[in-house]
Amino acid sequence: MGDYRELWKNLNMDLEKHDQLCAVLPDMYGSVYLTQENRPEGMNYFNFVVSEVHGLRPAELNEHKQKGGKVLGTFCVFVPDEVIFAANAIPVGLCAGSQFWVEDGEKHLPRNMCPLIKAAVGAKVSGTCPYFQSVDMIVGETTCDGKKKAWEILDEYVPVHVMDLPQMKRTKDYNMWMEEIKLFIEKVEELTGNKVTVENLKKGIEIANSKRRALKRLYDFRKMTPSPISGKDALLISQIAFYDDPARFVQKVNELCDELEERAKSLKSEGKKRIMITGTPMALPNWKLHDIIENLPAEVVVEETCTGTRYFENEVSTEGETIEDLIKNLADRYLNINCACFTPNTGRIDDIKRYVEEYKVDGVIYSNLSFCHSYSIEYRNVEKALKEAGIPIMNIETDYSTEDAGQIKTRVEAFLEMI
Amino acid sequence: MGDYRELWKNLNMDLEKHDQLCAVLPDMYGSVYLTQENRPEGMNYFNFVVSEVHGLRPAELNEHKQKGGKVLGTFCVFVPDEVIFAANAIPVGLCAGSQFWVEDGEKHLPRNMCPLIKAAVGAKVSGTCPYFQSVDMIVGETTCDGKKKAWEILDEYVPVHVMDLPQMKRTKDYNMWMEEIKLFIEKVEELTGNKVTVENLKKGIEIANSKRRALKRLYDFRKMTPSPISGKDALLISQIAFYDDPARFVQKVNELCDELEERAKSLKSEGKKRIMITGTPMALPNWKLHDIIENLPAEVVVEETCTGTRYFENEVSTEGETIEDLIKNLADRYLNINCACFTPNTGRIDDIKRYVEEYKVDGVIYSNLSFCHSYSIEYRNVEKALKEAGIPIMNIETDYSTEDAGQIKTRVEAFLEMI
């Protein structure tokens, strides 16, 4: 990693504690990722991004800020990045994926909360996440009780703007979400001093769509048997999508895809079971479940999660002549995401069944972060629908600790033998 | 109890299982309530209501239904009973307060969920709650992830109409809540066949306000030192408010209050510590915490909960000439409730501080049902504000089981000694 200590110091980071974090990551990454045989060359870029994860991009954000630009932190696929791009600001996904931050989070939150929220709060209060330290504003949303109330804590450290996501999908809810996007535009204009126009919003939509197209192209390769890319490599790329410079990211994903196109011609199936993961998001560096599964004779071929298909499926239309038109296009695309925060959320079951066909899935693993009520309750209906359709499914509830890894491995093994 | 077996059979209840429930309640009630010395005579009516809790009122609901009337089940103080009264329907709070139902609930819900939601689902699926069996429709809301997703399960058993409560309190949220009330009116009109008019909605408001006034009058007596009524008796009355015939309830509460007025003149303080409970609702027959506290030298003088002040504070204005006017009055009153489901929810802290003054509170006990994220996260801000104001506060997280009763008693004892 380059020398970023001056930058981190200027970001008011806790350097000593941050060193502890930096000391852990390379080993962890090495054992999960670099042990893979016959990896695509194109993954070298993503290896590099991880090796520089707290330096390279934060330095770019710093440069952007030096020129008067703004940086907005987000936590959820419902926040419309298009608006942020339009105002010449940069959106970044915030740190929330490591057990390292959980302990500090538990000083401010109850222990029986989802690890993602505890890690996010812990990352901020401990001053060990350069992204949290760089953002001028956090954009929150009301997708779950835990995050909704955690904004109140984070707001003591950095301004938080909350978007109230409707909990249903009726016509009035689309209208409400359009109003919420309008308020968000006003807020972003106020923060950046830049007006959101039809022209720059169309450009913002195009940037976000180009990321979606690149990820879609990548995921399409995973429909092949065998997939020319491992599940954990694909997961890593999805995770990096939330941080990286959009143009560079799209270019690198496309270069990788060009390689995969060639590579796919010569690969032969080893008869691995094809697994879909569905459930809660996996924030960087949460690779736990993928790593367990792919150390067995199985490959993860698709993630119906917020760090998977929910992030890139469906583009935003650029049709229209007014800001109103474009806001409607945004609302249409975003309320089409089938998150368990909606009631009912039957569209998710349709998505899962469709992906089972498209990705030739042998079995579905429902992955739920501990204490996420919305997804854990929804398991019942998903299980029922999949069993009716004859699709094998198993439920895993876990957090960021490694204590249950052996037990999960045993259960996944049994599941693979069964399907 | 009278003989209601024929009624229960017609309600498709599981008679055998229900007998088990009925066998437990009298002993429990006896030990918590009938052991109190020098109780007001006026409590006899409420003793009677409990002794007939699954018979008398369900028989009245049955009679109402025989005449073509409808019954709507509710779970939350945000559902506007006024609309239900206006359409000549009856609102009833649904069973959710007993450990008896938790096991059946856990067959459909994850175990790490709030006991209130598990008990509610368990009460329905086990066919042991005559109220659940009587309702033509359940009115749900989006106040927490757990309930929001549980409606999808209950909807398989009885139609559920969900009201999407905004999660913030901006002008647009008031407008949204008004729209939601309008949709609710349409739904109730459709179900009952009765039009909601300015005239009958004003009458509905008056019925709901009369309950609020009676409860307010009751609670005002608790501001006295000593309170002429125990905390657990007051809690019981609040719980019964959700079930009972409104006119009879108001009359009986007022008769009790007349007695308390006399009684207060001769009571002398025994120096008991005056406790406020703030937090999650206590559904019938959840008397656990009150019982523990009042078996110590302490009295609960106010509950800042949904089975306390949040239920009756602030009347709905009957001013206005149009349905729109009245809907606005409803929205104004209901969005004035300071539930932890809102972000931020600083009004709740103001309420707690005000009640500390008005009820001369010595210490605040924050009571949280296990796994209720909204209230458990909000503890941090409430604690901080109260400590700054020099008000003692302690946090208790518990469920419906009795296993932790000894431990809670020890902790409350220590708290009482400290304040």
From TrEMBL, chains A, B:
- Keywords, alphabetical: Iron, Iron-sulfur, Metal-binding
Which Gene3D superfamilies does this one have? Answer: 1.20.1270.370, 3.40.50.11890, 3.40.50.11900
Which cofactor is recorded for it? [4Fe-4S] cluster
A Pfam family hit:
HGD-D
Q: Does the keyword Iron apply?
A: yes
Family (UniProt): Belongs to the FldB/FldC dehydratase alpha/beta subunit family.
Question: What protein name does the entry list?
Answer: 2-hydroxyacyl-CoA dehydratase
